[in-house]
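Researcher: Here's the sequence for the chain we discussed earlier.
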Amino acid sequence: MSVYEKRTYSVNVGQMSTIVRHYVDEGWPVLEATGFGKRLVGYFISDTGPLHQLIHVWRFDDDNDRRDFWKRLYANEEFMAFAVKIRPLIHKQDVQLMLSAPWGPKP
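Model: Thanks. This is the structure I predict for it:
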């Protein structure tokens, strides 16, 4: 059964445009070029409710697959050069693991 991971980054007020620029210029190109982006369901920016949030959802085969993915991604020097730039712009990170319900569409 697939495991979905929702990561919510609470961005410092006034820094969302900088985060977006880093993702467009560096983060996403690295994820795409290395094949890591294939696990991504999508990136989202909050528009109502809690603001200044960057949300991304990932799909994995199971928890071992998820842990292996993050271990390999964090070992990628290009990705980590990007991560070092965005970390000071984030003041809180929440990670939620979700299982697909037994009905409805599967991303």
